[in-house]
Amino acid sequence: MNPDKEGENVSLIPDEAGYIIDTLIACGYEAYCVGGCVRDLIMGIPANDCDITTNATTDEIKAVFSDKRIIETGIKHGTVTVIINSVAFEITTYRIESTYSDNRHPDKVTFTRNLSEDLSRRDFTINSIAYNEKEDFIDLFGGKTDIENKIIRCVGDPVKRFEEDSLRILRGIRFAATLGFCVEEETKKAMLSCKHLIRNISAERIFTELSKMLCGKSIESTLIEFAPVLGEVIPEINAMHGFEQHNFHHIYDVLTHTAVVTQSTPPVLHLRLAALFHDSAKPFCFSLDEKGVGHFYTHASKSTLIAERRLTELRCDNKTKEKVLRLIKLHDTPVEESEKIIKRRLASMGKELFYDLITLKRADTAGLAPEFAERSTHFDRLEALADEILKKEECFSLKHLAVNGRDMLSLGLRGKEIGEALDFLLEAVIDGKAENERVILIEYAEKIKSKTTDNNKQ
């Protein structure tokens, strides 16, 4: 198959990947797509990012594609990257991995000419299927059946697989969340017994897996089922697990409530992180009143501190972290159905974050007792009011104000007086005390300035 020419046959894999495989086979080697792209292919998901495995050595791979651009950064691990039509494809020689002293990286990599030896060292059966268009699927460990039955199962001994590379624990949980699969019982037991090993993983890799996991379609059940594992990364999850709230608003323990709220938000990372951490301090803020009702005073501010600490440890980027912290801090603060209040929120938060806050609050309501479901209509009205304010382009921030700093300079104001005057005028417009017209605002500012000057003289 030549990616530079149009063909009549419809390929199940990208033309470039087919070209690489066909070229290696034409030169007397074996070659297959392998891993996630094959899993996706079986599931009917377009295969875009294709890894290729072959019995050709790195030198042989380079010789076959000597007319193409080649990147050699993975040579010591048996990987050559070949660029076809500006797309990079990793081609890796069949390999066997030795012991893993750090529970993450093999101490030694040995290359083999045997495909079965290569497939047997992979993590899960659903990722251990090879494919090319000539031989179809090479499935030695029942991966296709597990995909059909929606099961995550290790290849061989799960404890050994996780001791080799503890990142596989989080990858397995991530697959369960994103694919909606169940983890096979022995694999799950091994995840739980080996959970301490994920402490050996870099913070960046943990955050990458956690981010993908959180945005999965089955995150609710995943958070609950694998709370002990995730508690190794975020210890507060252990305290949330099974913590009863003793409050008529709630029918769930803190973790289950959190899982429901997380599932109820759109699969956007900062929203799901905010949902995950929004009640993380509740077990540490709990008190019972004389009637036996539970309360969680200051939990929003303390949950913000917990989220800041854990996200910093996990090397979360600052932009995402800032959004998450603001949402958590405000999630329990009421927003009245008032144009003035909403304008102030839009001014202080910005349009995007204001709507995100309403989204988080709506999801929070989904995690309450059923009789409080009608609260969602309150959020509908808040969004409708905000929509109307934005549609009319009403003034709610300094950039919408009909006057600016130069106008205040012309009135004789200097330094911080200018900012204070503009803030004052914005408040006057929002409160309906002055219209957002340049002449009116300048007159209003002059009157205020005169009163201030007179008061200072007295």
How do the strands and helices of this protein lay out in sequence?
Elements: H1 15-26, E1 31-34, H2 36-42, E2 51-54, H3 58-64, E3 69-71, E4 79-84, E5 87-93, E6 95-97, E7 109-111, H4 115-120, E8 129-132, E9 136-139, H5 143-148, E10 151-152, H6 158-164, H7 167-179, E11 182-183, H8 185-193, H9 203-214, H10 219-225, H11 227-230, H12 236-240, H13 254-264, H14 269-277, E12 287-288, E13 294-295, H15 299-313, H16 318-330, H17 339-349, H18 351-366, H19 376-391, H20 405-410, H21 416-430, H22 438-457
Parallel strand pairs: 2-5, 10-11
Antiparallel strand pairs: 1-2, 1-8, 3-4, 4-5, 6-7, 8-9, 12-13
Helix pairs in contact: 7-9, 7-10, 10-13, 13-14, 13-18, 14-16, 15-16, 17-18, 17-19, 18-19
Q: Could you characterize the architecture of this molecule?
A:
50% of the residues lie in helices and 10% in strands. By secondary structure, it is α+β, with helices and mostly antiparallel strands. A seven-stranded mixed β-sheet has the order 3-4-5-2-1-8-9. Strand 8 and strand 9 (136-139) form a beta hairpin. It starts with 14 loop residues before the first helix and ends with a helix. 38% of the residues are buried.
- Which structural class is indicated by helix and strand composition? alpha+beta
- Biggest beta sheet attributes: 7 strands, mixed
Distance between the termini: 91 Å
* Helical residue percent band: 40-55%
Q: Write out the strand line-up for the largest beta sheet, numbering strands in chain order.
A: 3-4-5-2-1-8-9
Mean pLDDT: 90
Count of runs of 4 or more consecutive helical residues = 22
Quaternary organisation of the protein chains: single chain
Tell me the radius of gyration. 29 Å
Described by the principal axes of the CA atoms, the overall outline is globular
Number of strands: 13
Instruction: Indicate the low-confidence ranges by residue numbers.
Output: 1-9
Estimated share of beta-strand residues: 5-15%
